[in-house]
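Bug #77: duplicate submission created two jobs. Keeping one. Sequence:
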Amino acid sequence: MSEGSPRLGTGRLAVKIFVVALVAALLVAAAVLAAHYAWVPQEETTAGDALSRGRIVYTATQRDRYARLGLAARLLAAEPALVSVLSGEAGDGDDETTPAAALADLLLQRREDLGYDTALVLDAEGTVVAASEAPDLVGSDLTGRALVARGLEEGVANGVWRRGDGRLAHASVVWVTPEFELLGYVVTTATLDEVLALEIERTSGADAVFLAGDGGGVRNLGSSLDAAANAELADGVGAGSGDLAGSLDAGEVREGLAADLDGEAHDLLTMPLRDARDATVGTLVLAAARRGAAFDPLPLAVGAGLAAGLLVAFLVALLLARGTLAPVRRLADMVAAAPREGFARHPEPGRHGHLAPLAAALGRLFRGLQEDRVLADTASRAGAADDEGGTAPGEEPRAARAAVMAVDLRRYARPDATDLPRDVAERTSRDVGRVRALVAARGGRLVGNAGHRLLAAFDGEDAVWDAVTAGAAVLATLGERESAFDEAEPPAVAVAQGPVTRGPLTGGAGGGFLVGPAVQLADSLLREAGAGDLVLPRAVHSAVAEKLSLQGAPASEQRGVLTPQPIFVVSASAAGRLAGAVPVAPTSAGPGDVLEGRFEVVERVAAAVDGELLRVRDRELGEVVALRRFAPGVVGLPRGAFDAPLAAARRFAHPAVARLHDYGETEGSPDAEQGFHLSREWVPGVGAHRLGDMPPTAALGLARQLALGLAAVHGAGLVHGRLKPENVLVAADGTVRLTDLGVATLVGSAPSRAVGQRMLAPEQVNGAAGDARSDVYAAGALVAWLATGEWWSGFGATPDESAVSPALGAFLARCLAQEPGQRFADGGELLIGLEGVSA
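Kept job's structure:
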């Protein structure tokens, strides 16, 4: 059984619940039985309570009836046949069926559907045109009736209506106004009868009687009382005897009345029945009998037994509650301590009985929070908050062998007294940014900045050659004169190789440090260098001499002035040839420049052979975005061939993927070799290639977020195709974002400068475009490297699954299968495959 579906302990919990429920049921049954024998009331409530409820029930019933009658009248008013008769459009009909007779039939047919007792149709003058009952009313003028008179004035009215047979009814009247022309009126009624009286009695417990005056006497229109009580009540109201005298004419609610009905004392309440003009046309009498209760001493013995039973039941419930709540308390204590412990302690489902599913869910939650926290700490230490691409030094202090490039910006060593400090600061910031971009383009990182002295470190198999070519690019770029009046001194560059220690400064200081013999050697070489020179020690020259000769940039051997060792100098002109033979994208764009008529450059982040990455302000969007400009000739597709796939990538939106904003050709590109640019959401964060060896817990947190992003991309029918460490950014809070979605459409799956072809799937290395399974391969390669510090793919690498947990090792092995069909099919399967995988 998997971790996600532990044993539920349902049987034991069911027994506990059954015992508690059984005890509770027995106690309730005993209490009800005791109450039944101890108190034998004839009525649950007092007569006053019943009268109050009866009044509320009648008021609510009257309101509901008026609403239903008004709706029925409006529905009848919309009947085409009714409108036709009132408008005079209906024919005379035959001898047996006149339009009025047909309309009366319609009123009878709709009675049951619409829920009224009777209905009348009147013309605009208030004369009856048709009636569902009492056909003798046809032709009668009813404008003197209160309901009709008010309806004539207001278009809608409600009130108690006295029918032709003397009975009372609730009634509503509405206008018939098709196309805003008054044609007549519809009256619908619901009778006040015995049915309504019984409904009130059944709901409230109080008897109801509807009374109306009748030729000096009193007429009972409907009652829930028996015949004898009805007669006594009518006599009391009509004969002027007792408390009921004058109730028909009271016109107000009267409480506190009393009468003997059928030999039993009753409390009474009377309510006037009002027509549409608030005149009293009848009375509702509510009656409730006064009744007592008998006492039975039998429950005294039962009460003593119940008390003992309650005590026993309480003790049993207490014991059960303690046993049931014990695992809850353990989980609560663990949840309370989890933030302090960094969510490192995970609940074990097997120890929590029937709460095992909750413990398993909390375990998964804690693992996710732990992974996110460790990932956020790792990214924060790497300087993720300030620099997309990870150029800020921030990894854990560590010793390694690296190539070091030192740059001396000599134009700032002796500033011109006429230069304004602000101009010096702007030029210095711009030149440092150019150096940073050129270093990043060769897979290095600027890790030291002491005024006009800069230090950069390079790792990897080609670290020395990368440092030399980066130095040549710095000389070629910064050595050019910016104007005819520029007399600035070109920089000097030195490259060394050897042991170094690097990492962040402690104690709250910003930036990072780089120290060691290689740094000292590069610093001493700078003292030997002239303006525009690239100086190499013997060991570095030996490693790159052949490549320098092939590129037409040989170094000349010289004897050092300050060191007895020979040095090798690449002149400024040779450095220019080397920079041209090993191209890097143009570095012309600087802060403040406006590109493509809308992108104002804020910072040049990185440069590479295929283009450059800039942080710019998009004047159309009004926000800072990332602008990737591809050098002419990099895009090998014919014009328009990439519009459809890039448009699809532009429509795609997901929180884990940087949004593509716009794309287009670069202004001024020749027809033969078009330049191209993409603008996308700017993502502050550090590239995964700057995170290095991280705890497997953090690597798993990154893997889950990466899989979530790929699942969304693949689910939309897209393929990333260019997944590399530089395109996986991690913010300081541990949020992972994918960038460069759609770039592979333009320039293919170019290998990463930092990791070469190690993240390219075998089919991509062989020239295929790749699909979702290629993205899965790249994701697995990246996670394996982050979790172990070693590459499991490319260049004959042999995976070491013993360096991670068995579950994580098996997961990564499937991601990195040589055959695409043996991998996870896409990001969705990749995300599912991570369930249950722990570090």
